[in-house]
Amino acid sequence: xxxxxxxxxxxxxxxxxxxxxxxxxxxxxxxxxxxxxxxxxxxxxxxxxxxxxxxxxxxxxxxxxxxxxxxxxxxxxxxxxxxxxxxxxxxxxxxxxxxxxxxxxxxxxxxxxxxxxxxxxxxxxxxxxxxxxxxxxxxxxxxxxxxxxxxxxxxxxxxxxxxxxxxxxxxxxxxxxxxxxxxxxxxxxxxxxxxxxxxxxxxxxxxxxxxxxxxxxxxxxxxxxxxxxxxxxxxxxxxxxxxxxxxxxxxxxxxxxxxxxxxxxxxxxxxxxxxxxxxxxxxxxxxxxxxxxxxxxxxxxxxxxxxxxxxxxxxxxxxxxxxxx
Amino acid sequence: xxxxxxxxxxxxxxxxxxxxxxxxxxxxxxxxxxxxxxxxxxxxxxxxxxxxxxxxxxxxxxxxxxxxxxxxxxxxxxxxxxxxxxxxxxxxxxxxxxxxxxxxxxxxxxxxxxxxxxxxxxxxxxxxxxxxxxxxxxxxxxxxxxxxxxxxxxxxxxxxxxxxxxxxxxxxxxxxxxxxxxxxxxxxxxxxxxxxxxxxxxxxxxxxxxxxxxxxxxxxxxxxxxxxxxxxxxxxxxxxxxxxxxxxxxxxxxxxxxxxxxxxxxxxxxxxxxxxxxxxxxxxxxxxxxxxxxxxxxxxxxxxxxxxxxxxxxxxxxxxxxxxx
Lengths: 325, 325
Description:
The structure is a homodimer.
Chain A: H1 3-6, H2 11-30, H3 34-44, H4 51-59, H5 68-92, E1 96-97, E2 100-101, H6 103-107, H7 109-128, H8 133-155, H9 164-189, H10 194-221, H11 224-227, H12 233-236, H13 242-250, H14 256-261, H15 267-277, H16 280-300, H17 308-322
Antiparallel strand pairs in A: 1-2
Helix pairs in contact in A: 2-3, 2-5, 4-5, 4-9, 5-7, 5-9, 7-8, 8-9, 9-10, 10-16, 13-16, 16-17
């Protein structure tokens, strides 16, 4: 499955989003913020799949509307995503993102903090240009969800007593909130009636949850060469994800994870826990849950008229569930 | 001069702002963000003079309007100020703010980063509640100015080749932009005609510039017991402020500051530079500039009708220029 094929109905608009992002750095230089311009150009000149703006654009395609608005919104959604990456990489002490050195590794944590703040605010200006107050407010609330979600993950590190419920709340905040907003705002700016807005929001929410679950599965399944990180990296860093929670549900008396979290420098205990979590039946259960979320996402689209955009959103859900990268 | 007396015309509204701020932390707990609630309560339960929201409220008082709107905006302006303090304290490694330990000293830099992000977004939700897109956009641009201003200061550390022009741009970003926005948005939401909006914006801009210049003067003039920081702390940290720039303008051949900046661990060289900057004629010139900015702020109000709010804004400008704290 080729992602560009899925994006076909919004190909031209997505190009406009990418072009706006590319030029955003240069614009800052012109307004007297030379240092900021240099750093923005570094951050914005990256690849990536642009899945969030693509969702915004596709969600807008069901009714006649002003084409400019979803492009502005798609730009904002991608910029917001980039701002969170800049701050997350700072917290995680990540050295590399998409093959390039991170802002914090090049210029330090303090600069990364300010550059992230700037991109947050910059993303909001694109939302403001839509002139739609409902969309602007949803966007601000999403930034709150994103930072609260990251804080939850941070505070829950090395806490082995977490349930699925904790996990769902956490990944809603850090991932699904933005997917949900990407779809919802696209629908609103695409002049969709309220029931379709809610359907597309639900699609975005469930797709975002599935996206994060798959990410967390790949962390255990992928080989280091494909994922670029050692297998079980999340657990090693003290983050409890769905495969680990499924394992604990199925083996309530097994204390491997507890043993590692209570002695978290211990590589041997870490490996024992990882090997147990990776056991086939645990991973199958996690996959079953991810597939269920993808199905819920797809079913939410039932009320929408059959169209190329709907077909793309359906295929995108399959793509997310099948991705092995 | 008593600041509460100056705030008299907006006393009731300012109480509503403070009440909203006090309750903001608790509201987060109710929405499932318990950790965030705890940290917000710590950050928001502080004193402070609330000069920025007072400006918003006073600027709104010239025409009949919906009272709720400036209260929402005042709350947003103070929250935004608090968000920048949380991030600035993180960068400056400050241990204490207004007599209380900072977020970064209590919970670490990573948490402070996320809490600051959350407060930025939270402040934006209050602005959204005004439903005024012009005001929302101005607010987003102000966040960009604030972070770009901080970045300028950060990047310019220990650079002795800075002129007044660099200094003006830097302090506009880090301080005057928010004062300007506080006044401008108050005027807009107070239904003022455009010429009065511009007059109040100019008042806010010049008052904010004066406010920062006085801050920078006090850093050299205050005694450690009053200011709570050692005299010349800015210079010691590599930040070149107006008194230092005035000194360099008046003594272009003196290389005391250059000598210290090029050997920045050297306390003796630091003290030599501080003593030279503190010389009476340099400080008198810096004061003259601050007074000029205050006068410009006051003159901007000439076109406004005589009223208690106008009188308060005029007195506030005198208060800012005379403050010795």
